[in-house]
Design goal:
The complex is a heterodimer.
Chain A: H1 4-43, H2 48-63, H3 66-79, H4 87-112, H5 116-124, H6 129-144, H7 146-159, H8 171-182, H9 185-218
Helix pairs in contact in A: 1-2, 1-4, 1-8, 1-9, 2-4, 3-4, 4-6, 4-7, 5-6, 7-9, 8-9
Chain B: H1 16-23, E1 39-50, E2 53-64, E3 68-72, H2 79-85, E4 94-99, E5 102-103, E6 106-109, E7 112-115, H3 118-124, E8 128-131, H4 143-153, H5 159-172, H6 188-200, E9 206-210, H7 218-233, E10 237-241, H8 245-251, E11 254-259, E12 262-267, H9 269-274, H10 279-292, H11 294-297
Helix pairs in contact in B: 4-5, 4-6, 5-6, 6-7
The chains are: A mainly alpha, B alpha/beta.
Chain lengths: 219, 300
């Protein structure tokens, strides 16, 4: 059933594509995290208008399927005068915007779990809102929501398989191309699945280790 | 009614008569340091409502430099709200609170009173330190990290300077050896002492304590009170909301009894605890005695 020489020949190609997938996912995670912090704290702002803006962002980017968002960014935005976006840029923008919406909801939950007294104390000592966000709220919210954040990271890596629609040669697209030329669909797609697990399983494991360590220290 | 806190009417020489007066010449002669204003905190006609409920009514209060004022009263009497107003953690809506002469929280405009900008509020309460019932330490930072945070970010100390001051503060509350411990690794009493060190690091002119020992196991109360006594002896201006009548009796220069949002009685510890005249105060102290004078009921 397996064609070992072919497998050995394809593996390096997939490994290269894995790198592309990782780069795009990690970039999206970083940008998504920044968006998530901003939108998450907007959602808890005392100013109603800001709260509604945060809500609208989440409504749009969580409501529209990622595939549609990607197509929209890649095909539609250039039509309305925005400069041509490269497949890589379109992939990163699309994934970041969507991840930002989910991470915002996660961070909001984390922010809400921090006792208000801690912020009262910080405010009284003179810390600014921005300092409170970066020094008190975000570090704790990340610890409190670490399982959810890692879960989001894994979902993001899996969702990145959709960026093949904008023509980026990520893991999924490369496997499709290989299968289309050598007709070894089962073998190529099994390998594809294996490569995704190769990232996500250790990721989940590392997260549980990290979570345990943080618990020991602060719980 | 005599000696409500000393059952049997036999009043042994109470320690408060000496503790404060040995460190200060006289109660009538508040310490003046370098010609600074001697009144740190002034409240005039302060009132506050939650909806239709008036929780503070016409509060008049002055706190002189180095004075220790204890606020006592039944729960719901408004004493915590009053204390929190002094740091503008509650927005009082009538009257004035002034810290070293500066109006706290509000500014007068043509269209009436407006909330002052946050930067101005922070400026006015810059010299106010506060200690909370729930400690409110930041659990993701070590004891030293908690103490140094505001020094670094707000006062812009270098890492070394902040560490030096932070360690000195932790030593002061007897926790130099716990500098690297996280709050979760400390007992409640130790956490509260770290919280005191954190407030002291900013060199406040006045310290507000909001039931600092109420969340503690009984055997941990003493260590926190001891730190507070030391502070009082060193001349720190303090306003303390407390249920620890012993502490109030020994350390306070004046005790204020609040009930239903009003100051019902005020005076020296002796006046409040030994010569209570107001029926509400008498009843409050009697309740306190009934709960605490267990030795009277002990079976032989």
């Amino acid at each position: 059933m397996f064609d070992w020489p072919l497998l050995q020949q394809n593996a390096p190609l997939l490994l290269g594509a894995l790198w592309v997938t990782l780069q795009v996912s990690m970039a999206a995670l970083v940008f998504g995290f920044v968006i998530g912090i901003v939108v998450g704290s907007l959602r808890l702002s005392p100013v109603p208008l800001l709260r509604r803006m945060g809500g609208a962002y989440i409504f749009v980017f969580r409501g529209i399927p990622l595939l549609v968002q990607l197509l929209f960014i890649y095909y539609f935005l250039p039509r309305v005068g925005l400069p041509n976006v490269s497949p890589t840029a379109a992939a990163i923008i699309g994934l970041s915007l969507a991840a930002g919406a989910y991470i915002a909801e996660i961070m909001r939950g984390g922010f809400l779990a921090i006792p208000g007294g801690q912020l009262e104390a910080a405010g009284l000592l003179g810390l600014s809102d921005a300092q409170m966000l970066m020094r008190i709220r975000v570090p704790q919210a990340v610890r409190l929501t670490l399982p959810a954040l890692v879960n989001e990271m894994i979902l993001l890596i899996k969702a990145s398989s959709l960026v093949s629609v904008v023509g980026l040669a990520d893991l999924t697209r490369t496997a499709q191309n290989l299968a289309a030329s050598d007709y070894m669909f089962v073998q190529d797609y099994l390998m594809l699945a294996g490569f995704y697990c190769l990232i996500n399983v250790p990721l989940a494991y590392a997260a549980s280790l990290l979570e345990r360590r943080l618990k020991e220290r602060t719980a | 009614m005599n000696s409500l806190l000393i059952p049997g009417g036999k009043a042994p020489a109470p320690p408060y008569e000496t503790t404060r007066e040995t460190t200060r010449k006289s109660l009538d002669e508040p310490m003046k340091t370098n010609g600074e204003q001697s009144t740190v905190l002034t409240l005039s006609q302060v009132g506050k409502s939650f909806g239709n409920l008036r929780v503070l009514k016409g509060i008049e209060l002055q706190v002189q430099r180095s004075e220790v004022v204890c606020l006592i009263g039944p729960s719901g009497s408004g004493k915590s709200t009053l204390l929190r107003s002094m740091a503008f953690l509650e927005e009082y809506d009538e009257g004035e609170i002034r810290i070293e002469g500066q109006l706290l929280g509000w500014q007068d405009t043509d269209k009436g009173r407006r909330r002052a900008p946050q930067s101005q509020i922070n400026q006015v309460r810059r010299n106010v330190g506060m200690v909370f019932q729930q400690f409110n330490l930041w659990p993701h930072m070590t004891a030293l990290g908690n103490v140094c945070e505001a020094l670094r970010r707000v006062r812009k100390f270098s890492a070394d300077e902040a560490k030096k001051r932070g360690m000195a503060m932790l030593e002061k509350v007897g926790l130099g050896h716990k500098a690297e411990a996280y709050p979760a690794q400390l007992s409640g009493g130790q956490q509260q002492r770290v919280a005191i060190a954190r407030a002291l690091a900013m060199e406040p002119h006045i310290m507000l304590f909001d039931e600092p020992t109420s969340a503690l196991d009984p055997e941990l109360v003493g260590e926190v009170l001891q730190v507070m006594k030391t502070l009082a002896k060193e001349g720190m201006t303090m306003v303390v909301v407390t249920h620890e009548m012993g502490f109030a009796a020994q350390v306070a220069d004046s005790v204020i009894f609040l009930d239903q949002g009003e100051i019902v009685a005020r005076g020296t510890p002796r006046q409040i605890f030994h010569n209570a005249e107001q029926p509400r105060l008498q009843q409050f102290l009697q309740n306190y005695l009934d709960r605490n004078a267990f030795w009277q009921d002990a079976k032989p």
